[in-house]
Fold this protein.
Amino acid sequence: MRLSVFSPESSTQLLIDLTKIYQDYFPPEQLTHESLQALLENEQTQFYVTLFNERHLGALRVQITEHQALLSLLSVRDLTRRRGIAKNLLREVEKQLKTEQVTMLKMSLKEIPEAEKEGLTLFMQAAGYQLAENVFTKML
């Protein structure tokens, strides 16, 4: 089965999986189903997930302003890292954003947990993003 990337409808399984995806990203008090549901229901952002074998393995939030998109909350379940899931998620979201006339992507390094910054920096640079003043940017 292929990885699929889409904007999900809320479900019990999605909330369980998001708890696992973000366990190293958010403190435990922010991993409640109510907090995660609020992330999904935010009308100012789009939320994307990667699905494989009926399990959500990665997630990314996008906020679009005119021709620019701000990426945030990029994370993959720790058990499934280094298998191309984030790369596929980012590539598919970039394709979708291009169809929406987005020309510039940005993501702040400030929100990333300290333990993840080095790995994420290498990943984002390999994906074609430039880092300047703690912000990754990429032109589409």
Observations:
- The CA atoms of residues 17 and 55 lie 7 Å apart.
- The chain has one domain: 4-139.
